[in-house]
């Protein structure tokens, strides 16, 4: 059944963006959800359909926001063993392996985390895109680590709001070429879609979405017989598409194994053969979502979960340590 939310713009709300106004008045709706509803013609202001989330409202405006009936799932279950770190009636924390996509998309509608979740438990939030039930945020296909899954709409809205307010703790580990200068700091830019390749993102200082990555170097691996690498911890303040990969590339320190923002492997004379084979063999980017911390949407308890580097990445670190002895 459709639900209509009716709002009136009062003095203190004058000249606000309509998406900000609605998400503030209706805290159960995340700003992202409000934006999507507006873009999909679900908002009327003074009985006229408005599709611009940034439209400014004025005193006396009458808003009618339609909340459509949740879509029914029609996705194929996928028999895949999920590594579930935590589960209760409201959410799951899943340790994702590299090589599997989060949700169905072009070329792959059946073998994703979403399909595996449907096979595991059909009770997932369904307030967003019908191809993304339960999905509050995502990781790239070839990135491993922790993701949050919402099992009901209330939890989905609450967790989405935490992401929008940048209060969710997210820490990643990555192995980059070379050394960051300085070895600890903050990268603050805008990120936008590349004008040369629409599948890539790039740093901008005037357009796009604000992106902030805090980083610190955990270990530097270097000697005369190996390329220099650094193991780096990145703490996100924002979660833009390919954010860490783009920011490391921008610094000139691409992530090992990154096929999109890549650095060609150069053979070094007298390099340790075992190490060289390990580096070449890695078939994905060395990027792992190590930690996630958030407030439970129902209990209000602060939770934090951690995941060790998976075996393929741990082997690389071990070989680099041995080569530096």
The N- and C-terminal alpha carbons lie at a distance of 66 Å
Major sheet summary line = 10 strands, mixed
Query: What sequence of helices (H) and strands (E) makes up the elements?
Result: EHHEEEEEHEHEEEEEHHEEH
Instruction: Examine the secondary-structure arrangement and name the CATH architecture of the largest domain.
Output: 2-Layer Sandwich
In DSSP terms, counting alpha (H) and pi (I) runs of 4 or more, how many helices? 7
- Please tally the β strands and state the result: 14
Number of domains: 3
CATH fold call of the largest domain: Pseudouridine synthase
Given helix and strand content, the structural type is: alpha+beta
The geometry reads as globular
CATH homologous superfamily classification of the largest domain: Pseudouridine synthase
Strand content: 25-35%
CATH class of the largest domain: Alpha Beta
What is the helical fraction, as a range of percent? Answer: 10-25%
Tell me briefly what this model is.
The chain has 325 residues and is of the alpha+beta class.
Detailed description of the structure:
With 325 residues, the chain is an alpha+beta fold. It folds into 3 domains: 3-67, RNA-binding S4 domain (Structural Genomics Hypothetical 15.5 Kd Protein In mrcA-pckA Intergenic Region, Chain A); 84-164, Pseudouridine synthase (2-Layer Sandwich), CATH 3.30.2350.10; 169-323, Pseudouridine synthase (2-Layer Sandwich). Helices cover 21% and strands 30% of the residues. Strands 5, 6, 7, 8, 9, 10, 11, 12, 13 and 14 form a 10-stranded mixed β-sheet that branches. It has a 4-stranded antiparallel β-sheet with strand order 1-4-2-3. The longest helix has 13 residues, at 311-323. The mean pLDDT is 91.
């Amino acid at each position: 059944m459709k639900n209509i939310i009716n709002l009136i713009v009062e003095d203190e709300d004058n000249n606000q963006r309509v998406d900000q106004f609605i998400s503030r008045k209706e805290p159960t709706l995340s700003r992202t959800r409000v934006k999507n509803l507006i873009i999909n013609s679900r908002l009327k202001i003074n009985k006229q359909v408005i599709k611009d989330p940034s439209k400014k409202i004025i005193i006396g405006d009458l808003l009618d926001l339609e909340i459509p009936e949740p879509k029914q799932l029609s996705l194929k279950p996928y028999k895949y063993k999920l590594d579930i770190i935590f589960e209760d009636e409201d959410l799951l924390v899943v340790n994702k392996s590299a090589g599997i996509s989060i949700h169905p998309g072009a070329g792959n509608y059946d073998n994703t985390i979403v399909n595996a979740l449907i096979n595991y438990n059909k009770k997932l939030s369904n307030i967003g895109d019908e191809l993304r039930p339960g999905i509050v945020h995502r990781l790239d296909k070839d990135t491993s680590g922790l993701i949050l899954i919402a099992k009901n709409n209330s939890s989905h809205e609450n967790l989405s709001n935490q992401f929008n307010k940048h209060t969710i703790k997210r820490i990643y580990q990555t192995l980059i070429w070379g050394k960051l200068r300085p070895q600890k700091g903050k990268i603050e830019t805008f990120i936008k879609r590349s004008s040369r390749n629409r599948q890539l993102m790039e740093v901008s200082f005037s357009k796009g979405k604000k992106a902030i990555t805090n980083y610190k170097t955990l270990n530097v691996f270097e000697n005369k017989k190996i390329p220099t690498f650094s193991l780096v911890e990145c703490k996100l303040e924002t979660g833009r598409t390919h954010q860490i990969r783009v920011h490391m590339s921008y610094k000139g320190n691409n992530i090992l194994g990154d096929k999109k923002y890549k650095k060609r492997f150069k053979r070094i004379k007298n390099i340790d053969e075992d190490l060289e084979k390990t580096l070449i063999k890695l078939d994905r980017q060395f990027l792992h979502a190590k930690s996630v911390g958030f407030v439970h949407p129902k209990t209000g308890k602060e939770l934090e979960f951690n995941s060790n580097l998976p075996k393929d990445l741990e082997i690389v670190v071990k070989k680099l340590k041995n080569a530096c002895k």
